[in-house]
Amino acid sequence: MHKDLATLTNQHTVTCDLCIVGAGAAGISMAMDWLDAGKNVVLLEAGGFEFDVETQSLNNGTNIGQRYYALPATRLRFFGGTTMHWGGYCTPLDPIDFEARPYVLHSGWPISFTEFAAFLPAASKMVEIDNETWDLDTYIAGKENYTPLDLNPSVYYSKLFKFSPPTRFGTKYRKALVASTSITVYTHANLTDITLDEEGKVVEKVQAKSLNGNKMTISANHYVLAMGAIQNARMLLVNNKQHKQGIGNHNDLVGRYFMEHPEVKTGQIFLKRPQSMKLYFFDYTKIKMYSELAIAEAAQRAHGILNVTAALHPKKLSGDWAWINKLPEDGKESYDFWVQAEKQISASPPSDVDTKKYLAYQMQIRMEQSPNPNSRITLDSKKDKLGIAEPILNWQLTELERNSIKDMHTLLGKELIQSDVGRLHAPEWVFDTSLEWPATLGGGWHHLGTTRMHNDPKKGVVDANCTIHGINNLHVAGSSCFTTAGAANPTLSLIALTLRLSKHLKQLITK
Ligand SMILES: Cc1cc2nc3c(=O)[nH]c(=O)nc-3n(C[C@H](O)[C@H](O)[C@H](O)COP(=O)(O)OP(=O)(O)OC[C@H]3O[C@@H](n4cnc5c(N)ncnc54)[C@H](O)[C@@H]3O)c2cc1C
């Protein structure tokens, strides 16, 4: 069923079993999981079925930390959410991401990789990727020219990525949700108020408003916030009528530990011998998989390095390449040499990489950011058109990110030499951590960690079931629950986590 709050003129009140707030990757995945559950589910969505400028302006916010994209450009506010312009890169979090690692402060999830991975097949279905193995060797067996670089797998390996079409959740799942008799989708329904009982331990009701002033009240057994990591934190902080520090924020954790995946161009890899690099070729419109170089878990632990992967973009080389064999063994010492070599590389990647063999590849890394309490979302005195305080993002990186970049390049440089595959050249900022981050530093448009998961309420906002500590019927879906970020693009994993929460809620609601 579909109702548009903007056209419901009477004060509208509904009761239901489950109220899901936000119809993006997380909210729609959860709603789809309840299609046949025989329960009364409400899905509240701030926007309509189409993009509109006025609603999108409700995503305004201010950056005060590390240079970052304009906040409205990083999230979409209409049915389908940010999936309406996501890139579709899919790969799951790794087992190491769930571990408490002594060199990563605040690491360690309260759930295991195995518990999480049980939901990957269903999550894969949501993003329309195959449900086959994530083991690269098995996946590429029999595929011609898909040859990984011959590196020591205990140091570097090639990690498999699959590409979603990309699934536009608002388009793909709209019909099924609107046709459902047990699910009611409310569009133009912006969550504004969350009201707790007198003891402040149970959500009694929530209120939603449309931009033209219509209001509705929803009273549910359980509520799920699925508005994305910035908005989940913002709405918990802003609802401070009963708990003056905001809901779930007794320990001043809501909004803290904001993480992105720093993405930046780093070194170039120069192969000694031409080989097919089709496996690493970036063209998700034609080829539904590719690989990035990844640092092995054993090497991460041994050297205290955060999780990182590197995409390899082919570069055309001119000139005679035989001189590669005359190179000094240490990439850093040969800096001047490589600066010259770089000048021989044309700026644009060749389009015929799957048939031709190129020798030079530009690395673009995507890395784990360590959890940092000072990297956070707070509230501005500025308010949006609904009277809700706007978010301020203070994105802060730590020394561990810079040291990890340095160490992963040192290790890769050595490994390329040792395995006789080629050489690495990286710019000075990679090795000299006292230099500024380059201006090209960006993020993956991935927002993580603002309602982090931990069994101890002093260390996390939600428990292992994604339920807000101390408020038994209020739950959070999405990457705001990530305890650590991993290096994987988050959507596949956040859907898996959402479906895990959904299963838990079914046990509670159908009891
Ligand atoms: C340009 C770009 C490319 C990306 N590429 C990739 C990629 O290749 N791979 C990958 O894994 N990830 C990618 N991402 C990230 C991906 O889009 C997000 O991880 C994912 O969409 C998050 O899902 P979500 O449901 O948590 O939030 P969203 O998809 O943002 O959905 C949140 C929903 O909540 C609604 N909402 C907000 N406030 C309220 C309110 N007050 N009341 C009611 N509803 C509300 C919004 O309108 C929206 O529909 C990309 C992101 C961007 C911006």
Automatic annotation (TrEMBL):
Question: Is Flavoprotein there in the keyword field?
Answer: yes
- What residue stretches are annotated with the FAD dependent oxidoreductase domain? 17-230
* Classification via Pfam families: DAO, GMC_oxred_C
What are the names of the required cofactors? FAD
Q: Which UniProt keywords apply?
A: FAD, Flavoprotein, Oxidoreductase
Q: Where is the Glucose-methanol-choline oxidoreductase C-terminal domain?
A: 371-497
- Source domain of life is Bacteria
Q: Where is the signal peptide?
A: none
Family note: Belongs to the GMC oxidoreductase family.
- Protein name per Swiss-Prot or TrEMBL: GMC family oxidoreductase
